[in-house]
């Protein structure tokens, strides 16, 4: 792996981290759907209503605790550092893009001039060929 670019390794790491969080979210969504289905089936049974209500209170408490944990992680020094690092990376990418545009501008302008000159030559040849194949006719009196 010593031949790989550190940026590639970082991109792969970010990609796998993103995939892991997406999978976590997907599994959490499936859990929620399963619990909702169980609630719906159980709610119709009078015996289960009390149990379902208690479970609902517990789940609500769990969701609130998770929400709190996510907020704390986002405001933690590590979360702030991650955000700062993302901002710095975005700034570096923007700067690199601007630098590349600056370096490429003269080459693009030169290429456009050359294309324009070639198009002008082609138009002139086409006009010449057209005039040679269709000579002007003298007006009829």
Give a description of the structure.
The protein has 141 residues and is an all-alpha fold. It has a domain at 15-75. The protein contains 3 helices and no strands. It has helices at 6-43, 46-75, 77-133. The longest helix has 57 residues, at 77-133. It is elongated. The protein starts with 5 loop residues before the first helix and ends in an 8-residue tail after the last helix. The model has no long low-confidence stretch (mean pLDDT 77).
Task: Offer a concise description of the structure.
This protein is mostly helical and 141 residues long. 89% of the residues lie in helices and 0% in strands.
The succession of helices and strands, N to C, reads HHH
- Tell me the overall shape: elongated
Low-confidence stretches: none
Total number of beta strands:
0
**Largest sheet properties:** none
Strand content: under 5%
Helix content, binned percent: over 70%
- Number of helical segments with 4 or more residues: 3
Our measurement of the CA-to-CA distance between the termini, rounded to an integer number of angstroms, reads 87 Å
Average pLDDT over all residues = 77
Pairing-aware structural class of the strands and helices? mainly alpha
The value of Rg in angstroms is 34 Å
């Amino acid at each position: 792996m010593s031949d790989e670019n550190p940026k590639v390794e970082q991109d792969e790491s970010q990609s796998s981290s993103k995939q892991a969080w997406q999978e976590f979210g997907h599994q959490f969504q499936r859990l929620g759907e399963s619990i909702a289905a169980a609630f719906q089936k159980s709610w119709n049974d009078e015996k289960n209503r009390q149990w379902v209500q208690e479970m609902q209170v517990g789940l609500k408490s769990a969701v609130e605790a998770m929400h709190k944990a996510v907020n704390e992680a986002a405001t933690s020094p590590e979360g702030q550092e991650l955000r700062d690092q993302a901002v710095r990376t975005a700034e570096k990418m923007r700067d690199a893009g601007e630098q590349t545009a600056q370096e490429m501008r003269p080459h693009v302008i030169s290429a456009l001039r050359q294309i324009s000159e070639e198009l002008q030559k082609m138009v002139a040849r086409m006009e010449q060929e057209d005039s040679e194949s269709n000579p002007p006719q003298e007006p009829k009196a």
